[in-house]
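S1.2 Input.
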Amino acid sequence: MLEGGGALGYLRAMSRARPPLEDTVVLVTRPATRTSALCRRIREAGGRPVVLPALVVTALPPIKSPRPADYYIFLSAHAVEHGLPHLRAHIPAMNRAVVLAVGPATAAALNAAGIRNVETPPTGPAGSEGLLATPCLEAGAVQNRRVILICGVGGRMMLAKELRARGAQVERLEVYRREPAQSDIAGAIRAGGGRRPEVAVITSVEGMESLSRLIRTQRQEWLFAVPLVALSERIAAERLRCGFTAAAYIAPSAGDDGLVAALLEYARAERS
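S1.3 Output.
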């Protein structure tokens, strides 16, 4: 029975409940323009975010607009931000085509730009693997269809390769570049309150590689022993190659919801 009984007792009990990330210092390594929402979620759960961008994102110069397509696949929120200016003439066609977003943040960016008919992968692995599991990208659906992948320079070619194997005509539209950031680890920790991070959020292999270089260059090797929250199984699998030795907690879905769920799993494991 709750102390005091009824609603008053419930409120007293809740007021003493520990926030799920109580006082946990979380290193957020996303590019600077993509940190605010996740940091807010971490604070709401009682955690303390430390912002250390591992990558810098820059737009590429304007290019010739491609021919209209049957499918438009946006591979990040940055792809929406930097890709739609190249595709303004395509927006009427997009409303008749299949528009896919790699995750909820990308879908929200498309919705904010006025594109409503956006599909996202079913719950499951993030990234190319999740997209390829989407029913509208099955072999029978994309055979002889024109597909534009809106993305950054480089990255994985898995999605384009597999879609071509399924019979699609694929064009990559590269609209931004990710480059290693020159972030100051010690300065970020001071700005975040002075305590060392206890867990680090990693959202791409490229970001993890850049963070690894920063750690070695700035003689902050203690960070290699910090547990990771990884957006995908691929990131978790690559962590040892990059020097990280602790456990990885894999987000169950793309976007901030999945990252927060993995952070809560980390917190439960630490307290057990």
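S1.4 Remarks. The first strand starts at residue 25 and ends at 28.
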